[in-house]
Specification:
The structure holds two protein chains of two kinds.
Chain A lengths: L2 E5 L2 E5 L4 E8 L3 E9 L6 E6 L5 E4 L2 E5 L3 E6 L8 E9 L8 E2 L3 E6 L1
Parallel strand pairs in A: 2-11
Antiparallel strand pairs in A: 1-3, 3-8, 4-5, 4-9, 6-7, 7-8, 9-10, 9-11
Chain B lengths: L3 E4 L2 E4 L4 E8 L5 E7 L6 E7 L2 E5 L6 E7 L2 E7 L7 E8 L10 E2 L3 E5 L1
Parallel strand pairs in B: 2-11
Antiparallel strand pairs in B: 1-3, 3-8, 4-5, 4-9, 5-6, 7-8, 9-10, 9-11
Chain lengths: 112, 115
């Protein structure tokens, strides 16, 4: 069974204090790993897709990396507007219909 | 444009009402999804439509009835719901491929309250 575990559950940072969020996964074969950002009461916003170990993608203060067992979302010099829940999801090779397995998310709070 | 729209934004309904949620996308995506999300939990897949045909039903109770009238529209018909069905209902869409993975784009959601 595919599993995704995110840590920590919650993270509080001061503005400018860089950190990383972790997503560990167990799948029969990885087709893709996705990062989303979700603000309270809104739909998840797509951030990155990673396909293979060693791949990295960047967008503004965010950088996502992938190994064979986990992915990291690095946040450099965060701002209060980066406060949100960050969701990681995987799609396995044996998955039909583009089914995603989500982690429970990391709730990030950035204080000014 | 990566926008998925959903209406209404909020819905309050009694347990005997019939209502519908609507979703629309104009990205040419041929896969569309309904998710249910409870507070502080990740989205939970309900239905998947591929090329306007229902391809996945995650054992959802029959009081939820999906419909895909065309490649851009997705509806969720609601009837005789229970208070525990109160949640944020999300629509999403993506490209389809035999192999490879494509990101899903989510709408803003409909906040449903069943009284």
């Amino acid at each position: 069974e595919d599993q995704v575990t995110q840590s920590p559950e919650a993270l509080r940072l001061q503005e400018g204090e860089s950190s990383s969020l972790n997503c560990s996964y167990t799948v029969s074969g990885l087709r893709g790993l996705f990062w989303y950002r979700q603000d309270p009461g809104k739909g998840p916003e797509f951030l990155f897709t990673l396909y293979s170990a060693g791949e990295e993608k960047e967008k503004e203060r965010l950088k996502a990396t992938l190994t064979k067992k986990e992915s990291f979302l690095h946040i450099t010099a965060p701002k209060p507007e980066d406060s949100a829940t960050y969701l990681c999801a995987v799609q396995a090779e044996e998955t039909s219909g583009s089914r995603l397995t989500f982690g429970e998310g990391t709730q990030l709070t950035v204080n000014p | 444009d990566t926008e998925v729209t959903q209406t209404p934004k909020h819905l309050v309904m009694g347990m005997t009402n019939k209502k519908s949620l609507k979703c629309e996308q104009h990205m040419g995506h041929r896969a569309m999804y309904w998710y249910k999300q409870k507070a502080k939990k990740p989205p939970e897949l309900m239905f998947v439509y591929s090329y306007e045909k229902l391809s996945i039903n995650e054992s959802v109770p029959s009081r939820f009835s999906p419909e895909c009238p065309n490649s851009s529209l997705l509806n969720l018909h609601l009837h005789a719901l229970q208070p525990e069905d109160s949640a944020l209902y999300l629509c999403a869409s993506s490209q389809l491929a035999l192999a490879g993975a494509y990101e899903q784009y989510f709408g803003p959601g409909t906040r449903l309250t069943v009284t």
